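The protein record reproduced below.
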Amino acid sequence: KSHQKHLEWTPQRLLNWGERIGTATCSIIRHLLESKPHPEMGYRSCLGVFSLAKRYGEDRLEAACARALIIGSPRRKAVQSILEAGLDRHADLFAADTTPLPAHENVRGPDYYH
């Protein structure tokens, strides 16, 4: 019976589930499936990501997945660490710094490098 239940799980089903949560979550799921020699080898990691939605909620999971993609670490463990540390709630850390450069003779500016 467990083998029959396993046949119900397909990569497309996991991708659809991820897409329902959000695009970042779907990207993480896609990476987990494609980074293994066989997609089935990534099922446990994918289900681990989805289990985080039960604990932290889908909105937080999506934010954590987006952050994991930004930092270049699309893995379940990274998403879990982001959620545990509450870093998914600090999206402003990746905002562009708009502080102007100070006027100083050693500051060359972008035109210097052309």
Notes: The chain has six helices and no strands. The mean pLDDT is 86. Helices lie at 2-7, 11-21, 23-34, 43-56, 58-70, 76-85. Residues 50 and 62 are 10 Å apart (CA to CA).
